From TrEMBL:
This is ABC transporter ATP-binding protein. Coiled coil: none annotated. CDD domains: ABC_DR_subfamily_A. Residues 5-232 form the ABC transporter domain. Pfam families: ABC_tran. GO terms for molecular function: ATP binding; ATP hydrolysis activity. Gene3D superfamilies: P-loop containing nucleotide triphosphate hydrolases (3.40.50.300). The keyword ATP-binding applies. InterPro entries: AAA+_ATPase, ABC_transporter-like_ATP-bd, ABC_transporter-like_CS, ABC_transporter_ATP-binding, P-loop_NTPase. SUPFAM superfamilies: P-loop containing nucleoside triphosphate hydrolases.
Length: 301
C-alpha cells in the first residue's frame, strides 16, 4: 500500500539560509504524526510546502499519489495555522457556511457540513452565537471545525491546543482521536506532553534536518514507564527500585522517573499505582514508555 504522503529529498532555501535540507519521510493513512522541533527548525516551512503555499527549491512531494498543485487535491488536505482568526461579526453558522461555499459546496450541502462539524467539536447548540461572544477555547474549536469541512483526508494543525484550559484541550484531543481512523493528522506543537497523548509517530526537525521516531515502548525483554510525581523526596528513587519487577530507575528531570521493568510482568502499571497509593504518593502523569521529551532530548543511562 502506497503512503498517503511521500516526501523525498525536500530542500527549501531563502537566499543563503537553508530552511529544509534533504527532508524525506512518508505518512500512512490513519497515522497521527507529531511535527516537533525548536523555533526556526523549519516546521512552518514544511507545513507551508505541504499546503502548497511555498514551492520547494528541490525534491518532491506526493500527496495521495498526486503532485503538489494538482487540482484533484482540492478539498483533500486542510490546514489550521496557529494564528487563524475568525470574523467576530458573524455567527458560527454564517461563517462556516461561507467557508463551505468557498470549497464549492452547494448552499444546502454547506449548511449540512456546518451542522456536522459543529456537532463534532461540541458546539452544535452555539450555531447562532457570534464569534465575539465565544471564549478562547470555543473559538479554537470553531477553527478546527472549519478545518474539517468537506471531510478532508489529511488535516494539518499548528498548535491546536495552545493556550487552552484543560477542558477545551481534552475536547480537541477527543475530536482528533475519534476521527483518526478516517483522517490522517499532522500536529505541530511545542507542548510535547500534549502531543504524546495523541501521536504514534514523530517527525523531529532541527536546523532543517529531520529525524523520525516511532512511539515504541517495547525494548527487548524490558519495557518502560515514566512516572511524574507531584511531590518527591531524596529517597523516592531508591523506594521505586524496591518494587518487584523493577530492573532500573533513573530520574530524567525534577519529579520525573523512568522505570524499566520486566516485560513479562502483566499490569505493571497497576502494580506501580498501588505502590504509590501505599506510600501516599500523588502522581501527575504515568506514561507508557519514555515521555516524548525524554525520547527526543535525553538518553537513558
Amino acid at each position: 500500500m502506497s503512503a498517503l504522503i511521500e516526501v523525498n529529498n525536500l530542500c527549501k532555501a531563502f537566499g543563503d539560509k537553508q530552511a529544509l535540507n534533504n527532508v524525506s519521510f512518508d505518512v500512512n493513512k490513519g497515522q497521527t504524526v507529531a511535527l516537533v522541533g525548536p523555533n526556526g527548525a523549519g516546521k512552518t516551512t514544511l507545513f507551508s510546502i505541504l499546503c502548497g503555499y511555498l514551492v520547494p527549491s528541490s525534491g518532491s512531494v506526493n500527496i495521495m499519489g498526486k503532485q503538489l498543485g494538482d487540482p484533484a487535491l482540492f478539498g483533500q488536505l486542510s490546514a489550521l495555522p496557529q494564528d487563524a482568526t475568525l470574523d467576530p461579526r458573524f455567527s458560527l453558522q454564517k461563517q462556516l457556511n461561507f467557508y463551505g461555499r468557498l470549497q464549492g459546496l452547494s448552499k444546502q450541502k454547506a449548511s449540512m457540513e456546518t451542522s456536522r462539524v459543529l456537532e463534532l467539536v461540541g458546539l452544535a447548540d452555539n450555531h447562532h452565537a457570534k464569534i465575539a461572544e465565544l471564549s478562547h477555547g470555543m473559538k479554537k474549536r470553531v477553527c478546527i471545525a472549519q478545518a474539517l469541512i468537506g471531510s478532508p483526508k489529511i488535516v494539518l494543525l499548528d498548535e491546536a491546543t495552545a493556550g487552552l484550559d484543560p477542558l477545551n484541550a481534552r475536547e480537541i484531543r477527543h475530536v482528533i482521536a475519534s476521527l483518526s481512523e478516517d483522517i490522517t493528522f499532522i500536529l505541530s506543537s511545542h507542548d510535547l506532553a500534549e502531543l504524546e497523548k495523541l501521536c504514534d509517530h514523530v517527525l523531529y526537525l532541527n536546523q532543517g534536518q529531520l529525524t523520525r521516531h516511532n512511539r515504541d515502548t517495547k525494548q527487548g525483554t524490558s519495557q518502560y514507564l515514566t512516572l511524574t510525581l507531584i511531590h518527591d523526596s531524596r529517597d523516592t528513587l531508591e523506594q521505586i527500585k524496591q518494587l518487584s519487577g523493577v530492573l532500573h530507575v533513573s530520574q530524567s528531570q525534577n519529579k520525573e522517573y523512568i522505570i524499566e521493568y520486566q516485560s513479562h510482568f502483566e499490569q505493571f502499571d497497576i502494580h506501580l499505582l498501588k505502590y504509590c497509593h501505599k506510600l501516599n504518593w500523588q502522581y501527575r502523569q504515568l506514561v507508557n514508555g519514555h515521555t516524548l521529551e525524554n525520547q527526543l532530548f535525553q538518553k537513558d543511562k
